[in-house]
Amino acid sequence: MTTAPTLTRRLLDGAGTDHGAHLARYGVLPRLSRDDLLAALTDSGLTGRGGAGFPTAIKVRAVAYAPRRPVVIGNAMESEPLSAKDAVLLGRNPHLVLDGLETLARAMRARRAILALGPEVDPGAAFAAARGREVEVVQLEGGFVAGQETALVNQLNGRPAIPRDPFTRVTEAGVGGRATLVLNAETLAQLALLVRYGAGWFRAAGTTEDPGTSLFTISGSVGRPGVVEAERGSSLRDVLDPAQPLRPSAVLVGGYHGAWVRTSDLDVRLTRRDLAAYGASVGAGVLHVLGTDTCPIGFAAGVAEYLASESTRQCGPCLNGLPRMATDLARLAAGVRDHGLPAEVQRMSALVTGRGACAHPDGSARFVASTLDVFRDHVAAHLEGWCPTPTGRPRRSDS
Amino acid sequence: MPHPDRSAAAVRLMTRLHVDWTRCDGHGSCSELLPELLGVDEFGFPVSRSGERDPAVPRRDRDTARHAVRNCPLMALRLYDADG
Predict the structure, then answer these.
(1) What is the pTM of this model?
(2) What is the assigned CATH class of domain A213-291?
């Protein structure tokens, strides 16, 4: 006999790659009609767990009435270096992700159902679990923007893993020219649970506006880095607690495209609405703790340089603006006493925003702008030629 | 489940200009033709003056905008009608 998983231990207590053990643990996978699936998704309030947080019901509806049979894709590219939750989920509970894909594929009579793994994701469990199931598993090339849905569709169409102009949505013309639905691996696992146990069960965790649980990857200055599951609406403090933060000075919420939350604000609840005040979102659940022994400007300069290097160099503002932003941030980190630098970095972050084919310039600008805002006292110190970080070397320079 | 409502009778449509940034190489003819809509950044790429991602094209500029679309050597521009 199976019992529904508890309030917050839903995703990670999987039964491994054995399908029989999986079915014994969770029960048979119900077959839903297209309309019943849409109703269940709408009632549950499930939102995407890959970053954008878009309502899943709306996304599914966009391909549900396509003239030709659609393609459904599970996105486990995990392109964000600070995220490990999809890899951990697929390692521990691969069948739950496949269940989600199969449910969608059956309900919409999909032409193909594909689970796309990034190069950093250990494919063993997913390949083993997919044997005998109606899902193709492929491992693809990576890169920071390779998981963005237009880049993913490009790669599956045999083209380079770079984003395309989003004017024509992948829900209209994606893989093989068909309407294509791309859902994050964790979103699919959540879907597989809610079609079994119902929208009411799903909503027993989280808040009315932001229901369910999410996986969070916790890294940085912590005693126990790793992946945890928590209710949406939990406080940042409670979610970080099991990872044992060590002398935190701030937390980066949402990864390299995210924003900083000060340690004085650790009681903020992890919901879309509460995090909006910080310019942050739950995103893919990436939480990176910065310790007091790390200079935030130096850290941010390193991230900005990485983000600039990950531009696919298609769009002029991103190609030119991101390196400029990274260079100026590096000068600030190095203690160059040019008082015009913060305003220049801010101007550049505003300039690149909204002017690219994908979310990369906007996300990069958001991270940089948040850094200047949250660490403004630290920035001011650098401009005076010293660094408040205890181990930070006050690198004086008047160049 | 009914199809999404596509009737636009009550919706005011607005013409917007979309830049395909993967094509644009900063040739600059669009911002010359539509100076009230588009400026040029320091890298030579068009900037929406209103800050809108796809700037709304006022009725008086529609013909010029169509001309700009035809004249873009990279075929990076298009006009479309959208709600509000």
Answers:
(1) 0.93
(2) alpha beta
